[in-house]
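Summary of Year 1 activities. Much of the first year was spent building the evaluation harness for sequence design. The harness presents a backbone, in tokenized form, and records the residue chosen at every position. We chose the following record to illustrate the format because it has been used consistently in internal testing since the harness was completed.
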């Protein structure tokens, strides 16, 4: 056993020495970015897919578990590919121009977004909508910070909350098809299923009865 540990320790020392080499830092950052994207994507998607699948989707246990695994894999893979592409393009641009400039981030992310998230599917759609809401908040704060719009005298968040909820419920009630399917399912559960019951069992214990009474 001792003889087997020698080569392994030597390999670990060599790997650790390689990780300390500054000239390989950009390439190694791309590899670790791929790793972090895969791990983070799985951590984010798995619990979300678990909850949404068991709450709103029908089918056997095997079919539900398969759907969860597929959604988790797709999110993890896409995020890993995107981080790999983005960091690789950032390193290439910086090397070509000799320095990093703000436009590099925009261009690298645009290319990565087109290549990795360009397909219109439920996973990509959810990710883009998640980012879009945060972009709008970020751009609003940046506009105030740069003086493009005046600093509000009162916190605008209550007005934003009112407009967001007013708009989304109006869309749900009168233009439901424009909303994303998972949001439609959530709102149906909250605002329509709560109007239907037959007895105490599906009033308090269950959302819908499973028998044929």
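For this record, the design step produced the sequence shown next.
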């Amino acid at each position: 056993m001792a003889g087997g540990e020698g080569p392994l320790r030597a390999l670990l020392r060599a790997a650790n020495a390689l990780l300390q080499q500054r000239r390989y830092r950009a390439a190694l950052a791309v590899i670790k970015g791929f790793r972090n994207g895969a791990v983070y994507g799985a951590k984010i998607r798995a619990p979300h897919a678990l909850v949404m699948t068991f709450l709103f989707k029908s089918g056997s246990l095997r079919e539900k578990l398969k759907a969860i695994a597929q959604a988790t894999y797709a999110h993890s893979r896409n995020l890993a590919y995107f981080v790999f592409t983005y960091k690789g393009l950032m390193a290439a641009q910086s090397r070509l121009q000799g320095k990093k400039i703000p436009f590099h981030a925009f261009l690298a992310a645009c290319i990565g977004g087109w290549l990795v998230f360009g397909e219109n599917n439920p996973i990509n759609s959810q990710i883009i909508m998640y980012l879009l809401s945060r972009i709008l908040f970020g751009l609003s704060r940046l506009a105030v910070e740069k003086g493009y719009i005046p600093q509000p005298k009162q916190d605008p968040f209550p007005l934003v909350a009112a407009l967001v909820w007013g708009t989304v419920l109006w869309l749900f009630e009168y233009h439901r098809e424009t909303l994303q399917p998972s949001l439609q399912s959530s709102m149906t559960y909250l605002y329509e299923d709560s109007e239907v019951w037959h007895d105490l069992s599906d009033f308090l214990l269950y959302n819908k009865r499973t028998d044929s009474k």
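The helical segments are 2-19, 25-56, 61-97, 102-117, 122-146, 157-174, 181-192, 200-205. Quantitative recovery figures across the full test set are reported in Table 2.
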